[in-house]
TrEMBL record:
Source species, domain of life: Bacteria
Organism field: Biostraticola tofi
Name of this chain's protein: Small-conductance mechanosensitive channel
Molecular function in Gene Ontology: mechanosensitive monoatomic ion channel activity
Pfam families to which the protein is assigned, alphabetical: DUF3772, MS_channel_1st, MS_channel_2nd, MS_channel_3rd
Keywords per UniProt: Cell membrane, Coiled coil, Membrane, Signal, Transmembrane, Transmembrane helix
Subcellular location(s) per record: Cell membrane
Chain ranges of the Mechanosensitive ion channel MscS C-terminal domain: 716-794
C-alpha cells in the first residue's frame, strides 16, 4: 500500500505545483486572458530611437548625480549595476538601429548616385531626386542616433569603472578605521541611544513589507497565496525526506556496487537539502511578489532572502553529508561515529546563524541604516559565527580524547584534517581579536571568508569523489557500461583503465580550477582583506616599483599563483608517474623521460605566468638580459650548455633511462636524466655523474638501443692433431642446449686462425640482451670444459721456449 500512496502524493504535489500559478493568475485576475489576446493581435512596435536616447541620457545623468553624492558601498554597488544595465540597453539600441540603416543604404544603392551637375538634368525625375534626398536625411539622422547611443554606452562603461574605483577607495578607508571594541559602549550605543532616523527608516520599510503581505491576501490573490504557502510548508517539512528516499532508491537500484554508490548517496544528502529549501523559499517569495504593487527595494529584499535561504541550506546540507549520522555507511570522510554524533548540531546551528544575521544585514542594506547600527549587526554576526566555528575543533578534540582515554580505536587523523582544524582555530581567534580591538569590518570579512572557503572546499571534496568514482565505474570491466565500451571499441582492460584515469584527471583539474576561481573571486565580504592601516593601504594600492611595474598587490597574486601552480604541477607529475603512464605500453625509460620533460616545461611556464602576474614589463628588463648575457658568457656557460643538452636528450632520446651505455671507459645503466647531469649506475652499485653535454658531444656506445641483442663469443685454442669437425659439432651442441642462446640467429663456429701453436676456433651465439652476456658465457664455459673432458679432447698447452748456452768448441789440437 505504500507505493500507491507515494505515487498518489507525488501526483498530487505535481498537480498543485502546476495549478498554483493558474489559481493565482487565472482565478485572481480574470482579465489577463483578454489582455494577452489583445497583445498577441497587436503589431510589433518600431523602436522610437529619439525617445529611447532621451530616456537613456536622463538615466545616465541621474546615475552621475547619485554617484557624486553617495558614499555608501551598497548604494554604489546598485549604481554600478544600473550603469552596466544602461550600457547594455544602449548597446541593444545600437543593435536595433543597424538593420534600419542597412535598409536605407540598400535603398540608396538601388536609386544609384546623384547625377553630376554637368549631366543632363532630365537624367532622372524630380521624384527620384526627392526620394534620394529624403533617404540621405534619414540615414544621417540614424547615423547621429547610433553615434549618440554608442557615446552613452561608452560613458556608462566609464562611469562603472569610476564607481568601482570609488568603492575600492571607500572600502580601504573603512578597513583602516577602528570602529570600537565590542566591549566598549560605542559598539552598543545603538541599543542605548536609539537613532530617530533609523527608526523612521525601519518604520517605512516595515510599512512596505506590510503592504506586500496585505496585497498577497487580497480577495483576488488569496487562494493562490494559500496554495503557495501550503506547498512551501509541505516541501520544506516532508520534501527533503521524500527526495532523499528517492535519490537513495536511485543510487541503490540503478548504480553499480562500489564507491560510486557511496559518493552519490553522500552528495544526494546535500542536494536534497538545497533543492527542497530552495523550492520552499521560492514558493514563499512567489506568494508575496505575484502582484505588481511592489517597489524595487522590496523585490530586491525578497530576492536576497531566497538566495540567503539557499546559501544556508547549502551549509546545512554539506554538514549533514559530511557527518551522515543517519547512514554512517554513506560517510566519505574518515570520522568516527561518536565524533560525528557529537558534531551533529553544528551545521544547522551555523546555517541558522548565517540566515538570521544575513536577514539583519540585508534589512540594514535595504533600509540604509546608520553606520553604528550596521557595525553592531556585523559585529554580532561575526562574534557568534566565530564562537561556533571555534567550538567545532574543540568539541571534536574533546570527544577524541575521551574515546582515546576509554581505549577505543579511532581513525588516524590525516595531516590535511589537522591543518583544516588549525586553520579554523586560527581564523576564529583572529576574528575574536579583531572584534576586541575594534576592527569590525576586518572581522566581518574573515567571518564570511571562513564560511566561503569551507563551502568551496566541501563542494570540491564531494564533486571530486563523485567524478573520480563515476569515471572508474563507467570504465570498469566488471560493470555493464565498461563491458559495452570494451565490446563496441574492441578495447582491453588496460585501455579502459587508461581512459578512466585520464577522464578523472581532467575532471579533477577542471574542478580545482573552478575552486581557485571561486576562492579568489567569489567572496561576498570585503574585497581587500589584508590592510588595517591607512599608510599600508596606500602602499598596497600605490604605484609600486615604477621601473618594473611591480605593485605589492601583484606580488601577492604572483605568490598565490606560483604556490598553486607548483602544487598542481607536482600533483600532475605524480599522477603521470604513478597512475597514468604505468597503464600504458611505454617502457620505463620513456615514461621517466616524459615525466621529466613535463616537469621542466611546467616549471618554466609557472615562472613565466608568475612574472606576468607580477606585472613585470619585459621591455624594462634590458639590464637583466644584459647581466644574464655576461653571466652566460662566463660562469653560466656550462650550466646553460648542460641544460640545453638535457632537453636534447629528453626530446631526441639517443639515450634514455634504463639504457646500458659506455662513455669514456665508464659502462653502466642510466638511472636518471636531470636538468644538468645524468646519473649512471655501475656494476658495483656506485653512481657516476656525467654532465649532459658529454653525452651529446662525445662518442657514446648504447648497448641496449633499438632492442639490441647480446653476443656471447668464446675463442678456444686446440692442438693441431684434433678433428676440427668433431670439436665444431661439440661446441655447437653446447650452445644449442643452453637456454640463454637464441635459435635465430643460429650459433656458429668460425675457424679463425691456424698457426704452429694450434688451431683457434671461435664459437658465437646471440642472447636476448647485452646484460646477460656475462652470465651466459660463464655457463657456456662450464659446459664446454665438461664436454671436452668427456670426449677426451684437450686444449692446446702454451709452448715454452727454453734457452740453453751451447758448450765451448774443443780445439782439434789441444797441445797447440
Amino acid at each position: 500500500m505504500r507505493k500507491p500512496l507515494h505515487s498518489f502524493c507525488s501526483y498530487l504535489l505535481l498537480c498543485l505545483l502546476a495549478l498554483s500559478p493558474i489559481a493565482g493568475q487565472a482565478a485572481d485576475a480574470p482579465g489577463k486572458q483578454q489582455q494577452s489576446q489583445d497583445g498577441a493581435a497587436a503589431a510589433p512596435v518600431k523602436v522610437n530611437a529619439t525617445a529611447e536616447l532621451t530616456k537613456l541620457q536622463k538615466q545616465l545623468d541621474s546615475i552621475k548625480q547619485q554617484v557624486s553624492g553617495s558614499n555608501n558601498d551598497n548604494k554604489l554597488s546598485g549604481l554600478n549595476d544600473a550603469a552596466l544595465e544602461l550600457a547594455a540597453d544602449a548597446d541593444a539600441l545600437v543593435t536595433a538601429l543597424i538593420p534600419d540603416r542597412a535598409q536605407l543604404q540598400s535603398q540608396l544603392e538601388v536609386l544609384g548616385p546623384a547625377p553630376a551637375p554637368d549631366q543632363n538634368a532630365m537624367a532622372e525625375t524630380s521624384q527620384v531626386t526627392r526620394q534620394r534626398a529624403t533617404l540621405n536625411v534619414q540615414k544621417g539622422k540614424l547615423d547621429d542616433q547610433i553615434k549618440q547611443a554608442q557615446a552613452i554606452k561608452d560613458n556608462a562603461a566609464n562611469l562603472s569603472a569610476q564607481i568601482v574605483a570609488l568603492r575600492r577607495n571607500a572600502l580601504r578607508t573603512q578597513l583602516a578605521l577602528n570602529s570600537g571594541s565590542i566591549l566598549g559602549g560605542r559598539f552598543w550605543s545603538p541599543l542605548v541611544d536609539k537613532q530617530a532616523e533609523d527608526a523612521r527608516r525601519f518604520e517605512t520599510f516595515g510599512q512596505q513589507i506590510s503592504q506586500a503581505w496585505e496585497g498577497a491576501w487580497q480577495p483576488d490573490w488569496r487562494y493562490g497565496s494559500i496554495i503557495c504557502l501550503l506547498l512551501a510548508i509541505a516541501v520544506g517539512t516532508y520534501g527533503r525526506h521524500l527526495l532523499e528516499r528517492g535519490l537513495a532508491w536511485v543510487g541503490i537500484n540503478l548504480l553499480p556496487e562500489g564507491r560510486l554508490r557511496r559518493s552519490f548517496l553522500a552528495s544526494a544528502t546535500a542536494l536534497a537539502s538545497i533543492l527542497t529549501i530552495g523550492i520552499a523559499a521560492n514558493l514563499v517569495a512567489y506568494t508575496f511578489t505575484r502582484h505588481t504593487e511592489l517597489i524595487d527595494s522590496v523585490l530586491a529584499f525578497v530576492d536576497n532572502m531566497v538566495k540567503l535561504a539557499v546559501f544556508s541550506a547549502l551549509i546545512s546540507g554539506l554538514g549533514r553529508a559530511f557527518l551522515s549520522n543517519q547512514r554512517p555507511s554513506w560517510r566519505l570522510a574518515t570520522i568516527a561515529d561518536p565524533v560525528a554524533r557529537g558534531m551533529k548540531s553544528f551545521p544547522p546551528l551555523l546555517a541558522g546563524l548565517i540566515f538570521i544575521f544575513g536577514i539583519i544585514e540585508q534589512t540594514n542594506n535595504a533600509v540604509g541604516t546608520s553606520v553604528p547600527t550596521t557595525i553592531m549587526g556585523n559585529g554580532l554576526a561575526s562574534l557568534l559565527v566565530a564562537i561556533t566555528a571555534a567550538m567545532i575543533p574543540i568539541r571534536s578534540n574533546r570527544i577524541r580524547n575521551k574515546l582515546a582515554a576509554e581505549g577505543e580505536a579511532l581513525p588516524i587523523r590525516s595531516p590535511v584534517d589537522a591543518l583544516i582544524h588549525l586553520a579554523i582555530s586560527i581564523t576564529a581567534f583572529a576574528i575574536l581579536i579583531s572584534l576586541l580591538i575594534g576592527y569590525i569590518a576586518l572581522a566581518r570579512f574573515l567571518t564570511y571568508e571562513l564560511v566561503w572557503v569551507a563551502i568551496v572546499l566541501s563542494c570540491i571534496y564531494f564533486l571530486i569523489h563523485l567524478v573520480v568514482d563515476a569515471c572508474e565505474s563507467v570504465f570498469s570491466p566488471s560493470n555493464f557500461t565498461g563491458q559495452r565500451i570494451k565490446r563496441s571499441l574492441n578495447l582491453d582492460d588496460r585501455h579502459l583503465a587508461q581512459a578512466a584515469a585520464l577522464l578523472s584527471a581532467i575532471g579533477k583539474t577542471m574542478l580545482l580550477l573552478f575552486a581557485v576561481v571561486a576562492l579568489l573571486n567569489g567572496t561576498f565580504g570585503t574585497t581587500t582583506p589584508l590592510v588595517l592601516l591607512q599608510n599600508a593601504i596606500e602602499i598596497y594600492g600605490g604605484k609600486g616599483l615604477e621601473k618594473l611595474n611591480i605593485v605589492p598587490a601583484h606580488v601577492l597574486n604572483a605568490l598565490i599563483l606560483a604556490g598553486v601552480g607548483i602544487y598542481v604541477l607536482r600533483s600532475a607529475r605524480r599522477w603521470l608517474d604513478k597512475d597514468f603512464l604505468p597503464k600504458t605500453m611505454m617502457e620505463p625509460g620513456l615514461r621517466s623521460s616524459l615525466v621529466t620533460l613535463f616537469s621542466n616545461v611546467g616549471y618554466v611556464l609557472i615562472i613565466l605566468l608568475a612574472l606576468t602576474t607580477l606585472g613585470i614589463r619585459w621591455n624594462n628588463l634590458a639590464w637583466i638580459v644584459s647581466a644574464l648575457s655576461v653571466g652566460i658568457g662566463f660562469g653560466l656557460q656550462e650550466i646553460v650548455k648542460n641544460f640545453i643538452s638535457g632537453l636534447i636528450l629528453l626530446t631526441e632520446r639517443p639515450v634514455k633511462v634504463g639504457d646500458l651505455i659506455s662513455i669514456s671507459g665508464i659502462e653502466g645503466d642510466i638511472r636518471r636524466i636531470n636538468v644538468r647531469a645524468t646519473e649512471i649506475q655501475l656494476g658495483d652499485r656506485s653512481t657516476v655523474i656525467v654532465p649532459n653535454s658529454q653525452l651529446i658531444s662525445q662518442n657514446v656506445r648504447n648497448a641496449t638501443m633499438g632492442n639490441a641483442q647480446g653476443v656471447a663469443t668464446i675463442a678456444l685454442t686446440f692442438p693441431l692433431d684434433i678433428d676440427p669437425e668433431q670439436v665444431r659439432t661439440l661446441l655447437l651442441d653446447v650452445y644449442r642446449e643452453n637456454e640463454a642462446i637464441l635459435d635465430s640467429p643460429a650459433p656458429s663456429v668460425t675457424f679463425s686462425q691456424l698457426s704452429s701453436t694450434g688451431i683457434v676456433l671461435s664459437v658465437t651465439g646471440f642472447v636476448s640482451s647485452p646484460r646477460v652476456v656475462g652470465n651466459a658465457k660463464s655457463d657456456l664455459l662450464f659446459e664446454i670444459l665438461k664436454h671436452l673432458r668427456a670426449a677426451g679432447i684437450a686444449l692446446s698447452a702454451p709452448q715454452k721456449m727454453i734457452l740453453e748456452n751451447a758448450p765451448a768448441p774443443v780445439p782439434d789440437n789441444p797441445t797447440a
